Structures are given as C-alpha cells and as structure tokens.
Amino acid sequence: MNGLNPMKANIEQAIGVSSFNSSVGALFLSKTTGRYLFVLRNGAKYDSMWAFVGGKVESKETEYTALQREIVEEIGFMPLVLKTLPVEKFTNSKNNFSYSTYVCIVEEEFVPKLNNEHKGYAWSKLDSWPKPLHPGVFTTFQIDEIVNKIKTIEDIMCD
C-alpha cells in the first residue's frame, strides 16, 4: 500500500471535500452599476495587489461554505447575494492546487468592513480594473472565454 487511504478519499469525494490545496474567490457584481468589487491585499504575499475576496477551503468544507466564510471574514458581513455563478476552476495538478472563481451578484454596491488582509477596495468596470492585479486575477482576465462568460453574466443580470 502506498500510504493513501482510499476510504478517506472516497468519503472526501462524496462530501465535496478535496485533499487538494483548494481556494475560492468571489467577484462581486453590482446589478445597478455593472461594477465589480476588488480588494487591495495587505501583507507579505502579493502586498498592494488587487484581488478577489476569498481564500483557502478548510478541511471538511465545501467550496460554497468556504466562499461564504471567506466573504464574512474579509468584508465583515454577508451581503444579500442574489445569485452565485461559477466562472472558472483553475487546477495545477503538479502543485496540488485549485482555485475556483465565482461571480456573486448583488443589487447595489456596498462598503466592505475590511479585515487586516486588505487595505482598500474599489468598485470598477471590468475593462478598467485597478492595477496592479494579483497574478492569478491577471491570468484569469487574459483568458477570453472566462472574460466573455463574465461579460455575458453582466449583460443578463445588470439593469
């Protein structure tokens, strides 16, 4: 036996828990303005880079549960989210890492109560995002298929 526990793996798979180092991100979209929320990172890793709200999926959490927890932790409360739509799942098998991006539709822009992970926020149009972007966010926005998916969501959902 190679040290892996197949029963544990099957249970994790069945309940939606991954042994991958998984993370999630929320790209908030305001229906009334058509603008997106970006947060300015604070700290040693990616300091002063603009990112999505989000973070690591903890043990025994689903992606959706982790997304909700990270939103509350990072912006201080759970805004009324009208719809949560998956737009990307980036996977790097070599590094045992995955990152899922969700668009979270809210009626109006809100003022986040940032924790110490962030030192600023901005609501921006998709084509005029703040700079510099976190490398993962920058890479996401270089993929036409993902950008087109986000723009389609905006076209359908915004006033």
Give a nutshell description of this structure.
By secondary structure, the chain is of the alpha+beta class. It has one domain: Nucleoside Triphosphate Pyrophosphohydrolase, CATH 3.90.79. 27% of the residues lie in helices and 32% in strands.
Features:
disordered N terminus; 4 helices; 4-stranded mixed sheet; 159 residues; alpha+beta; single chain; 27% helix; Nucleoside Triphosphate Pyrophosphohydrolase
Question: Helix and strand layout, with pairings?
Answer:
Layout: H1 6-15, E1 21-30, E2 36-41, E3 50-51, E4 53-56, H2 63-75, E5 81-92, E6 97-106, E7 118-124, H3 135-140, H4 144-157
Parallel strand pairs: 1-6
Antiparallel strand pairs: 1-4, 2-3, 2-7, 5-6
Note poorly predicted spans: 1-15
The CATH homologous superfamily: Nucleoside Triphosphate Pyrophosphohydrolase
N-to-C CA distance: 58 Å
Measured on Cα atoms, how large is the radius of gyration?
16 Å
Indicate the multimeric state: single chain
Query: How would you write the strand order of the largest sheet?
Result: 4-1-6-5
Describe this entry's structure for a reader.
This protein is 27% helix and 32% strand. By secondary structure, the chain is of the alpha+beta class. The protein has a single domain (17-157), classed as Nucleoside Triphosphate Pyrophosphohydrolase (Alpha-Beta Complex). It has a four-stranded mixed β-sheet, with helices on both faces. Strands 3-2-7 form a three-stranded antiparallel β-sheet, with no helix packed on it. Strand 2 and strand 3 form a beta hairpin. The longest helix has 14 residues, at 144-157. The model is unreliable at 1-15 (pLDDT under 50).
